[in-house]
Every structure is written in structure tokens, then in C-alpha cells.
């Protein structure tokens, strides 16, 4: 594979499903495009029903697109699905390991099913148990594993045959915060080696922010924005600056209404898009911390009293809101 060829590529994918009982068809994908470089983690983020799972299923050859094309490790998924299957690992949300077998037995079986010889499968199983800190538990039945251990075993199963591309569908959903942090550390170390491309779907913005080299936000079957987490946050043009103004108590000689705040800042170019919402002044600045002292001075000189001021780096939540017009957490909670 030439170095410049993406490890994953979706070009204009469309897919609809029957709506059922005379209802119109459901448009799951409406011309979805993205590409991921080899050796990176690429995350697909989006609300429930956005089309993430459908995209992954098409790339992993589990379903076909109605139109468009997709390539995995340079192989056309529509034309050579068998070849694609050999090149990928797929870690679904549902546990795949047999609870009555030991972790090691599960791994060896997965390797044998992939066509590995007995000794090769055993050696690889030992290697993966060590990599996921499961060596001490490798000879215990999986039914005694914690949720986090069982999930790590599932990822290890997906890695047995050394895939070039690994699909990870919500790898930490349902895990407690400690197990989630542990899984993140494992995935980060896999990403560092750059030996494999990982396509991650996740509901956790924090997970995508931390793990993904690049990410795409999917909404209504299309990629609405794609980039590195930093690029996407920088695209919001600066830090969010929030100033809470003290309400005038009335009667004081120098006190002016808070509405004077916008006037005090006009023409200075310190804050972009300044807005006054009650007594809260909001805007953006390239370097919020550097802008704050002058901002406070100008407000003070205009006779306004500041109760508090905060500067925050934009988060992926802000990026999501900007591109989908909806607050991320609200939707996920409603769907849960
Ligand atoms: N087998 C199916 N039959 C009918 N409709 C389907 C089928 N699979 C998915 N859909 C619909 O296609 C759309 C996209 O679903 P998809 O599962 O790809 O979204 P998603 O982004 O993965 O959502 P989630 O985060 O909830 O897993 C949704 O409207 C969904 O209801």
C-alpha cells in the first residue's frame, strides 16, 4: 500500500432501510465521506441514529451501501469483501467471549478460527494477555471477570490475527470510570505504536478528544465537520470569556446599568461576538487569559463592577453545539 493511501475511506455512502408498515424508508446515510490515515485513531461521533453504526457495518462488510464506495486498507469493500475481512478486526458492543472458557482459551479459539496454527495462536494469546494486563487472570473463566476485564479481552480477541484496521464500537460504554480510564490507557498505547488504524465510534466526547487523532461528527447520515480535536476547537475562534457583572444597587453616584458593557468595549476589538445576557457578558478571544486584564480595566473605567470572570478553552461540546445546533449530553441522556 503506498504511504499516502488512506487506511479507511468512505466516498458518498448512501443507505436506507425499510421504514416498516407502509412508512417511508429511513435514510441512514445521505452521502457520507471521510478518510483516515494509516496508523491513527479516527473517531465517529454523533447522536443516536446519526448513521455511525451503519457506516462501520459497511466498512466492515456486514452490510452493503446503496451507492458510493468504501475502501479499507486500499481494498474495495463492495468488490473484495473477503479480502477486507482478513484485514480487519471488529469489536462489537456485545461481549463475544465465552464466559465458561478462560480468557486464554477464548483468545486461542479466536486465533484458530482466523486460521492461525495452534502454537502461533497460543503465543499470540500470551502476548495479548500481557499487553492488556490480563496475564494473571488468563487461566480463569471469563464469567469471573469484571466488566472492564471482559471488555479488554474482547479487544484482544479482535487483535489476535494482527488486523491492519480495528473497528471499535463504543469500547467503554457501560464501564465504570476506573475501567474506562484503564481502557483509554490501553488504546492510547496502541495508538502510539501506530501499527494499526482504529475506527472508534463513541458517545463520549471526552473519549474522542483524548484518543482520536482526527474525528468526524456525523449527523443525519452526513459528516458535518471533520478534523483534529484541536482544529475543531480552534475553529470556534478562541476561548470563551464570561464576565458576570454586578447589578447596580441603585442610587450610587458612579453606577451605570450593565447595558453599558457593550458600549465600553465597542471599537476595542477585544472580544469577538460580545453578547449581554442579563448581567452576563460573553464573547470569544484568541487568548482569553491575556485579554482579561484589559477587559476588566475597560469595564471598571466605564463604572461597571465585575462579580466574577472566567476563561475556558472551547470543548468538543462547544464544537458539537456549533455544528449540529444541539447540546450533546441532552440527547444522549434522553436516548438512554
Ligand atoms: N436494520 C435497520 N432497519 C431499519 N432501520 C435501521 C436499521 N439500522 C439502522 N436503522 C436506522 O438508520 C438510522 C441510522 O442508524 P445507525 O444505527 O447507523 O445510527 P448510529 O449513529 O449508530 O446510532 P446509535 O448511536 O444509536 O448506535 C437510524 O434512523 C436507525 O433507526
TrEMBL record:
Gene Ontology MF term list: ATP binding; ATP hydrolysis activity
Domain of life per record: Bacteria
Subcellular localization, as worded in the UniProt entry: Cell membrane
Keywords for the protein's UniProt record, in alphabetical order: Antibiotic resistance, ATP-binding, Nucleotide-binding, Transport
Membrane topology: Peripheral membrane protein
Record-annotated ABC transporter domain positions: 8-245
Pfam families referenced in this protein's UniProt entry, alphabetically: ABC_tran (PF00005)
A single cellular component GO annotation: plasma membrane
Region (Disordered): 1-20
Location (main, coarse): membrane
GO biological process: response to antibiotic
Name listed for the protein in its UniProt record: ABC transporter
Lineage: Bacteria, Bacillati, Actinomycetota, Actinomycetes, Micrococcales
Amino acid at each position: 500500500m503506498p504511504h499516502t493511501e488512506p487506511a479507511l475511506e468512505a466516498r458518498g455512502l448512501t443507505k436506507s432501510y425499510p421504514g416498516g408498515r407502509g412508512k417511508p424508508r429511513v435514510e441512514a446515510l445521505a452521502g457520507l465521506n471521510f478518510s483516515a490515515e494509516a496508523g491513527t485513531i479516527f473517531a465517529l461521533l454523533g447522536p443516536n441514529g446519526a448513521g455511525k453504526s451503519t457506516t462501520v457495518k459497511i466498512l466492515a462488510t456486514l452490510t452493503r451501501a446503496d451507492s458510493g464506495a468504501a475502501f479499507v486498507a486500499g481494498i474495495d469493500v463492495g468488490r473484495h469483501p473477503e479480502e477486507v475481512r482478513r484485514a480487519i478486526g471488529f469489536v462489537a458492543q456485545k461481549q463475544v467471549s465465552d464466559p465458561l472458557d478462560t480468557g486464554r482459551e477464548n483468545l486461542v479459539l479466536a486465533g484458530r478460527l482466523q486460521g492461525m496454527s495452534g502454537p502461533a495462536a497460543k503465543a499470540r494469546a500470551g502476548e495479548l494477555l500481557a499487553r492488556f494486563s490480563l496475564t494473571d487472570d488468563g487461566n480463569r473463566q471469563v464469567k469471573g471477570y469484571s466488566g472492564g476485564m471482559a471488555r479488554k479481552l474482547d479487544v484482544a480477541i479482535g487483535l489476535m490475527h494482527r488486523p491492519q484496521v480495528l473497528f471499535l464500537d463504543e469500547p467503554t460504554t457501560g464501564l465504570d470510570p476506573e475501567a474506562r480510564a484503564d481502557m483509554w490507557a490501553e488504546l492510547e498505547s496502541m495508538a502510539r505504536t501506530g501499527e494499526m488504524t482504529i475506527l472508534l465510534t463513541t458517545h463520549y466526547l471526552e473519549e474522542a478528544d483524548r484518543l482520536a487523532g482526527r474525528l468526524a461528527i456525523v449527523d443525519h447520515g452526513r459528516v458535518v465537520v471533520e478534523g483534529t480535536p484541536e482544529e475543531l476547537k480552534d475553529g470556534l475562534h478562541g476561548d470563551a470569556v464570561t464576565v458576570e457583572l454586578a447589578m447596580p444597587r441603585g442610587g450610587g453616584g458612579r453606577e451605570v446599568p450593565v447595558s453599558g458593557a457593550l458600549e465600553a468595549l465597542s471599537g476595542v476589538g477585544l472580544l469577538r461576538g460580545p453578547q449581554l445576557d442579563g448581567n452576563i457578558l460573553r464573547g470569544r478571544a484568541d487568548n482569553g487569559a491575556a485579554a482579561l486584564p484589559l477587559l476588566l480595566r475597560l469595564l471598571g473605567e466605564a463604572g461597571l463592577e465585575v462579580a466574577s470572570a472566567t476563561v475556558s478553552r472551547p470543548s468538543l461540546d462547544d464544537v458539537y453545539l456549533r455544528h449540529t445546533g444541539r447540546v450533546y449530553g441532552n440527547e444522549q441522556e434522553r436516548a438512554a
